[in-house]
Write a structure and sequence with these properties.
It is a single chain. This protein is α+β, with helices and mostly antiparallel strands and 207 residues long. It has helices at 4-34, 36-43, 194-202; strands spanning 60-73, 76-77, 82-88, 94-104, 116-122, 127-128, 134-135, 146-154, 159-166, 172-173, 177-189.
Length: 207
């Protein structure tokens, strides 16, 4: 018959080993979580890496902003037509515009077929997205948005505006709703080193 003391020591040793195994397993899981991005980099191709995994100052995430203008019901378009819509990027992170889509609220010359052109401008830096105004119909709809060949960077707190004008040489009355909505899809990105970011925009050496 085993000594009760030996039995107690054996049971304690078994419990200690079990606890050690549990702690090692837990430590491994925590280590994997902390280095998840590194693990993914080793196992996934570059184009499949998620942008919302990693350190707080390096993550990116999808985001949308919208601009809405309303020329009223049965608007008249002409050389004096002008209206501006804008949004402001929050301080949290910069915004990288990747695609633009449009939505109109009437299929008529007041909305979908409106004789309007748009100029996009970053008021913070005075940069323009297009070197000449583009017609409203140039912008794709939500199912097939216009994808920018080069994403357009807006820094935190920047104001981005869309100025609507008409290319008509004389006033023209229309029938329908003149309400128009533009959606801007992109990614929020952390921008800690502003000098380096601006150097990529203006072509200057970062100090």
């Amino acid at each position: 018959m085993k000594n009760p003391l030996e039995s107690a020591l054996l049971a304690q040793r078994t419990q200690i080993r079990h606890t050690e195994k549990s702690l090692r397993r837990l430590n491994k899981e925590l280590s994997m979580r902390e280095n998840l991005f590194e693990e993914l980099k080793r196992k996934l191709p570059q184009y499949m890496l998620p942008g919302n995994v990693g350190s707080l100052d390096a993550v990116t995430w999808p985001f949308w902003y919208q601009i809405e203008v309303d020329f009223g019901t049965d608007p008249t378009y002409g050389p004096n037509t002008k209206q501006t819509g804008s949004f402001q990027v929050s301080q949290e992170a910069a915004f990288l515009i990747s695609a633009i889509s449009r939505k109109t609220f009437s299929y008529s010359e007041a909305g979908e077929l409106a004789p309007l052109q748009i100029e996009f401008r970053d008021r913070q830096s005075s940069r323009v997205l297009n070197d000449a105004p583009v017609t409203l119909q140039t912008i794709g709809k939500k199912s097939q948005p216009t994808v920018l060949p080069t994403p357009f960077l807006l820094m935190p707190a920047a104001y981005f505006e869309a100025q609507f004008t008409s290319w008509l040489p004389a006033d023209q009355a229309t029938v329908g709703s003149g309400k128009i909505q533009l959606s801007f899809f992109g990614y929020r990105v952390r921008a800690e080193d502003f000098a380096r970011v601006y150097s990529t925009i203006y072509g200057m050496n970062a100090k």
